[in-house]
Amino acid sequence: MTKKLTWIIWGLSASCVSLPVLASALKSPLGTNGIDALKLHQPPYNLIGRKIAIGQVEIGRPGMFGWDKAVSKNRAISLAAVFSRNGPAKSNSGVDPHAYNVAGVMVSQDKALPGVAPGARLYSSAVGSTKNMGQPEECLSAQHIALQNSGDVRAINFSFGEPLNRDPRPEASLDGKALLTLCVDWSSRVHDVLYAIAGNQGKGGIPIPTDNFNGMNVAFSSRRGGVFNKVDVSNLAGINQGASGRLAGKEFNLDGRRAVSLVAPGNNISLLNPDGKLNKVTGTSFAAPQVTATVALLQELSDRQIRAKQPNWSIDARRHQVMKAILLNSADKIQDIGDGLRLGMTRTIIDKQNQDWLDSDAYKDPKIPLNAQMGAGHLNVFRAYQQLSGGQWQPSAVVPPIGWNYRTVDVGASADYTLAKPLKQGSFISISLSWDRLVELNDRNKNQQFDVGENFRDRGLNNLDLYLVKADAKTTDAGVVCSSISPIDSVEHIFCPVPATGNYKIRVHFRQKLNEATQPYALAWWSVPE
């Protein structure tokens, strides 16, 4: 690798509410000024990711207590298992402080520096030295992690990547065709796992597999006035922010497809090193695992609701497309002034040019679903909890102001979700749609697993569109209030003000077929009723 990304995250348990603890919690990336995850660790929520399996793939691996000398004096991080590629890890081999820091972001049980999901089961694989391995071995490692916990791993973290100059293709670019990128999109679907991928950082760093369609790429924020609310300057700028043609396709997706899904804290974050000493880190490496571990908190909630046979809950809540739609739709964009019209958002996130979401092409152009620098906005774990708690609702009946769904739509057809209550004039509505690019494995030996020497077939991305329409509109184009109609992205996202109090419906339309005639999708919505 030409460059290593290094980042970190921490939080403080707020079980005792002394002033020093409160002050620490406010400084923590996991507190209210960061991703607001610590609240969920406490009653009445009690969500820490219990029994939920998540994964980690990196060049090295975190040390495991009782197995590796490097962590013999530090029990803060408990791991479910560690591997070397797709085999068992050798004691004291491949242990890496960066991987340990990243693991700490997710599952640290240290009282002063807890992870986002301290109760989750983390499986970690080290790919090994970059001298004698490449994308096939990285894919093998990811697949091995996806198959752990009896094949039930809900999210996998990539705080590493491949530079284009190591890709064997001639004139390699970020066109979604690199082996590792295809592997991520294939595994997302086949293993039903959400990949959280550290966003490319700096000139020529680790762009592959940030050109994936089915995972989430994470950029990182820094603090202003104590609050994580600005895209950090060392993230790559978007195409419109002065990138030269020389860089297009090298560090940015071809055709202007948006690469960043979310922003999470990543500047000057305190984490524990293997020896138990404090380390301050910066980078997307430490933002991505916050998203990975957030999935564990949300999945603990889902499993709890499913076990209790709650109405409007099903195992669809486990699907990676649903998690992606929930995380996108609950992200912070513009701070709510207290009247709820901006969906209770807790901060205004600004880009490197100090512009907010409402200044961006993503807000103004229906063909652009996400902001080039901040994606859908800043990760907010408590709001993601609220979004998921709305439950699953089918288009066959009226739906509540907040909810989600997973189902299929046929080519040329639409699914209409009619909101049960009139929407309030001047309020914002947020709607997110997520679906997969179809990547298949060319499985030469028919063992239904990727093996080194095999490759993938890209069958393309079906084109779905998303609309907010007046409830009495009869045709697809009539009564459209807001739309998201990108021809190239695997998400659509609407964040728009309601022009007049009245009845509305959300429409998912399958416009154009590139592979199968039936397309599974996930939808999440958040609105303000009159």
Describe the protein in words.
Helix 3 packs parallel to helix 7. The chain is built from ten helices and 21 strands. The strands form five sheets. Strands 1, 2, 3, 4, 5, 6, 7, 8 and 9 form a nine-stranded mixed sheet that branches. Strands 12-21-14-19 form a four-stranded antiparallel sheet. Strands 13-20-17-18 form a four-stranded antiparallel sheet, with no helix packed on it. The chain has 530 residues and is an alpha/beta fold.
Mean pLDDT across all amino acids: 91
* Radius of gyration based on Cα positions: 22 Å
What is the overall silhouette?
A: globular
Fraction of residues in helices?
10-25%
**Contiguous uncertain segments of 5+ residues:** 1-20, 240-246
Report the end-to-end length measured between terminal Cα atoms. 54 Å
Residue fraction in strands: 15-25%
Count of alpha/pi helices: 10
Q: Would you tell me the structural class of the helices and strands?
A: alpha/beta
Instruction: Profile the largest sheet.
Output: 9 strands, mixed
- What's the β-strand tally? 21
Essential attributes:
single chain; globular; alpha/beta; 530 residues; nine-stranded mixed sheet
Compile the SSE list and pairings.
Blueprint: H1 19-27, H2 38-41, E1 53-58, E2 81-84, E3 87-88, H3 97-107, E4 121-126, H4 135-146, H5 148-151, E5 155-158, H6 179-190, E6 194-198, E7 216-224, E8 227-231, E9 262-265, E10 269-272, E11 278-281, H7 288-307, H8 320-329, H9 361-364, H10 381-389, E12 402-410, E13 414-418, E14 428-434, E15 439-442, E16 455-458, E17 463-470, E18 480-484, E19 491-497, E20 504-512, E21 518-526
Parallel strand pairs: 1-4, 1-5, 2-4, 5-6, 6-7, 7-9
Antiparallel strand pairs: 2-3, 7-8, 10-11, 12-21, 13-20, 14-19, 14-21, 15-16, 17-18, 17-20
Helix pairs in contact: 3-7, 4-6, 7-10
